[in-house]
Amino acid sequence: GVEGLELSYNDNWLNGQSGKRRVVRDLRRREIDSLEVVRQARPGRDLTLSIDKRIQYQANVALGEAVEKQKAFSGSLVLMDVQTGEVLAMANAPSYNPNNQQERASHSKKRNRAVTDQFEPGSTMKPFTIAAALESGLFSPDDIIYTSPGYYKVGRYEVKDALDYGWLDLRGIIKKSSNVGVTKIAQQLDSEQMWGVLDKFGFGQLPGSEFPGEIAGLLNHPSLWHSAEQFALSYGYGLAVTTLQLTRAYAAIANDGVMPDVSFVKQDSRGPGSQVISSQTAQQVAKMMEAVVSKEGTGYRARIPGYRVAGKTGTSYKSYSGGYDEERYISLFAGFAPASKPRLALVVVLHDPSAGEHYGGQVAAPVFARVMGQALRILGIKPDDWGSLAAQVATTVTPKERL
Q: Of 249 and 385, which is predicted with more confidence?
């Protein structure tokens, strides 16, 4: 293989090894005797991917249709088993036809955006800020923050919320996606401690998937931070991540604070992973994230009938060398399900949606609901919210059918 995982596994897995014998030949180089086997031949080994082709197909269709509908420049998603770190689906749009030589020669179409393209994750970073706050011991879930009048001055910078939310506890800050709230929290955290939590979640580091072209993203050390960087990081600016990195980090929250090792190859057993935050903190943050998908939350369109979902919306401005373009957006939804006993984490990213809507809760959340819902059903994962499933059935039955 010259690309993808085949390239990574060619030498030490797929190729095998030629054997070697010591023989006697005549003048015409015909073998007349075999003296010994110097080295046994070893055939190449099979490589079984973790990708589930049923889910992969559904992911490709859903993402492609969303990119077309939203008139987005591109889109990516990664679906991961939160316990094993196995990638069950990874999709990019627009895709390319490998049988088309012209498309195959196009680097922009051919590269795996979910692994190679970095971006500022916006509000999908807020759960990690809250996790750092809880880990610091300075905050508890019931602490309240005053966010009025909906904006907050930090030096010459002004942080804004969509509305004036008044007093919010930590759950409310996640639910309403309050920039003011997380900024005020981040200001009270020690910069080394906050950075340490983000670093443990793998930001600024290679994911270790062995996929060619994977990048580390960017997370500066506090010694390099300027005056506004700590509060900007709290709501997802001033760092860069890939879709794969962000999915792994959300998988850690879902997995009781244990970060799984990423793998595109089927695993025989669960790896040890690494404990990045306490189990208690992970469960508290996950509970807060469920509120995002409630009727009053920013991610209501990510709900899946029959399943409890924990997630977070995100919308960030596209950056360029001189700053930010406030008319171009990156729209995200990140989360996991079933929230009562998480099995799958999924991150959906759409770049430059231009059909009208651009918020993550409007553009990316429906894709999350569609792909995650299909994956849960394909894998036979039992529902954990029968009430919402019964409610949906009741609303889809006509009065005549109820008789």
A: 249
